[in-house]
Specification:
8 strands; alpha/beta; 13% strand; 13 helices; globular
Length: 286
């Protein structure tokens, strides 16, 4: 699997009673396909996977697969507090029909680099699907250091890393390393131009819930070397992207879904929703 394009980690729509809104999720999938995204990720950070029980995670995975299978690439988030549970989630994703997996270090346990490497190798050795590493230290409490990435990049079942640390020097180091059959993927919504300029081909973009068409256009411009167009698109999106990266990311991804045209409900506890003024202020940035 070669990652190339915009991959959107979908929000999980909730209805007024706080239950998964399956119809809205299907609508969202169709809209993303219409906008030209290369793939979708279900049960990622933006999808509030940590707030879903096991049955709900399965429901989301099955709904997205049923709506999109064979039309675009599908990635299943298999993050969990427990390595063994991630193995089970990988098997479920394979059984449903997903193409790849997205996996972070387990949050809260704060493993050393040896533990991080062992975690990924343990899951990769037991999975039939390719794995994308997910480096998001602000959420997991640990960084996947360069030396660990270099070692994991040699595993035949590990195909890339979503780099969401916010430290572009890390990404540049990896992009310059020339890892074989391993993609360095933009995971910071305010840095795609930098990633693409230095050779990245894909962006797993939480803000793609808000700007799917614009981000597809930005990727196309970057691949064509039209950097004036890239800068123009980033300038237009940047106020909202900066706001999202500055706090209440999931809340804003939902408030601004499809440029603010699709109501996908609020976030679940432990997150709390934006108040009316906060939603209005963000939508004005759109």
């Amino acid at each position: 699997m070669k990652l190339d394009g915009i991959y959107v980690p979908l929000v999980t729509p909730f209805d007024g009673a706080g239950k998964i809104d399956q119809a809205k999720l299907e609508t969202l999938v169709e809209a993303m396909i219409d906008k030209g995204v290369a793939g979708l990720a279900a049960c990622g950070t933006t999808g509030e996977y940590y707030a879903l029980d096991d049955a709900e995670r399965t429901q989301v995975l099955e709904t997205v697969h049923r709506s999109a299978a064979g039309r675009i690439e599908l990635i299943a988030g298999i993050g969990d507090m427990c390595t063994y549970r991630s193995v089970a989630r990988a098997a479920e994703a394979k059984a449903i029909g997903y193409d790849a997996l997205l996996l972070s270090p387990p949050p809260y346990s704060l493993p050393r680099q040896s533990g991080i490497r062992a975690h990924f190798e343990f899951v990769a050795d037991r999975s039939e699907l390719p794995i994308i590493l997910y480096n998001f230290p602000a959420r997991t409490g640990v960084n996947i250091e360069f030396e660990t990435v270099a070692a994991l990049a040699k595993h035949p079942n590990i195909i890339g890393i979503k780099e969401s640390s916010g430290d572009f020097s890390r990404a540049l180091h990896m992009l310059q390393a020339g890892f074989a059959d391993f993609e360095v993927i933009c995971g910071c919504d305010d840095q795609p131009a930098d990633f693409f300029f230095w050779g990245a081909k894909s962006w797993i973009a939480g803000a793609g819930n808000v700007f799917p068409g614009e981000q597809v256009a930005l990727h196309a411009a970057a691949m064509a070397g039209d950097w004036d167009r890239v800068r123009e698109l980033m300038r237009r999106m940047y106020p909202a992207l900066h706001s999202m990266e500055s706090g209440d990311y999931n809340q804003k991804a939902k408030a601004g879904c499809l440029n603010g045209t699709l109501d996908v409900g609020d976030v679940r506890l432990p997150l709390t929703p934006l108040d009316a003024a906060g939603k209005q202020a963000f939508r004005e940035l759109l």
